[in-house]
Amino acid sequence: MIKIYNTMTRKKEELKPINQNKIKLFVCGPTVYDESHIGHARTYISFDLITRYLKNQGFSVFYLQNITDIDDKIIKRASELGVEPIELARKYEREYLDDMRVLGVENVNYYARATEHLPEIINQIERLMANDFAYETETGIYFDESSFPEFGKLSRRNLEDLNIHRISPDDTKRNPGDFALWKKRDDEPFWDSPWGKGRPGWHIEDTAITEEYFGPQYDIHGGGLDLIFPHHEAEIAQMESISGEKPMVRYWMHTGFLNVKGEKMSKSLGNFLTIRDLLQEYDPEVFRFFVLSTHYRSPIDFSQSALEQSKNSLDRIYKFMENIDELIESDLYENNDYDDKLIRKLLFTRSNFLKAMDNDFNTPEALSIIFNSIKDFNREINEKNVSKSILKRVKLFLLEWGEIFGFKLHSINDADDRTKELIDILIDIRGKLRDKKDWELSDFIRSKLNDLNIILEDK
Ligand SMILES: [Zn+2]
Ligand SMILES: [Zn+2]
């Protein structure tokens, strides 16, 4: 039984999907106006792990993410750089997807761009207007917070707190908490709508996209803690007003902040780190390990020493794996008297590991179980208690861990013969390229093999 901490109820609840074992998961995607930073990476690595674990436990997951490719920030940045907003958005979308691939985030089934869902967005706004949940002014269409008495139920704010959205003198909103569904603008880029030229507000794109692919109700919505208010609150108001079906989402999941040396990461503090900056210095797997060694809801503090520690820990797992591989290839006995005892030990370890993961994806606890087990089996190895058949089982367990946590522990020894031959061909081609001094292409082959954890060393 998997328990998930639901931000809506502030409790851990048993995971029961709406439709049997099929989970519909939506996570807020990036606004593609700049390089993604390591705080984003933390969120997406966390949801990647969550998806991997749910799949390991027999759920089928459809993971949907939006791409905010129209937004004031994109337009502003594009005009500063003198490029078309859509060009800028596509460039940073490509970089984002590259970053995610390098970080091993590979479980998103579909990325939905806002600009490709304008009919759905306009249609939702029309339905809100038709039922008086929204109103038109000369600057746009606004959601009327007073039409939705439950407004604030996710963030547990009352209307007084909501007044932080102050009305500026030239504002045309009725209530301070009202938010834009449609902005009337005739500067590029704009779309035609029943209310004239303009572009959508930010909150409406998520509900338009989730309604299109999931319907008015679905299982999990995730994102960073900072999105609870007003973004997710606004989504609930929009969708539940339109459909009348509650709740829009069964489980709200939010990731904690990533701080840098105890301080919030921000451009003005100068401690802002993009994923690309990070990968100049660190292996993506080390960063991934660092992220997963803290629970996804807790704040996590980025520092060089924390990264070094993660590197050492991850190295221990790889070294252990290598050691096992060597022993399996050696002339060690196939079975022995200790097998039953060690099998029980391993089963017990695995069940504790799964229990930790079932408990709201408690990765730090799951990792400590893995490390204790490595220590324990190292001792058994030293005492010559292990047979090949046990080591093969230990290896399978670690490979399962690697699948769930997103580490490519498979060694070249695990490849089938045909794959090994193909890799040999690539290595030959690379050798010929090096003879011709085509460094660019030979480095390309090496780095691609490196992505598959095949390390080439030129000696
Ligand atoms: Zn959302
Ligand atoms: Zn969102």
CATH first level of the largest domain: which class? Answer: Alpha Beta
Overall strand count: 14
Q: What's the SSE pattern?
A: EEEHEHHEHEEHEEHEHEEEHHEHHHHHH
Please give the radius of gyration in angstroms.
26 Å
CATH topology grouping of the largest domain:
Rossmann fold
Shape: globular
- State the secondary-structure class: alpha/beta
Give, in spatial order, the strands making up the sheet with the most strands: 5-4-3-10-11
Query: What is the arithmetic mean of pLDDT?
Result: 93
Stretches where pLDDT is under 50 for at least 5 consecutive residues are: none
Give the names of the bound compounds: zinc ion
Largest sheet: 5 strands, parallel
Detailed description of the structure:
By secondary structure, the chain is α/β, with parallel strands linked by helices. The protein folds into 3 domains: 279 residues, Rossmann fold (3-Layer(aba) Sandwich); 107 residues, Four Helix Bundle (Hemerythrin (Met), subunit A) (Up-down Bundle), CATH 1.20.120.640; 37 residues. It is built from 15 helices and 14 strands. The strands form 4 sheets. A 5-stranded parallel β-sheet has the order 5-4-3-10-11, with helices on both faces. Helix 10 packs antiparallel against helix 13, helix 11 packs parallel to helix 13 and helix 14 runs antiparallel to helix 15. The mean pLDDT is 93. Bound molecules: zinc ion (2 copies). One zinc ion binds next to helix 7.
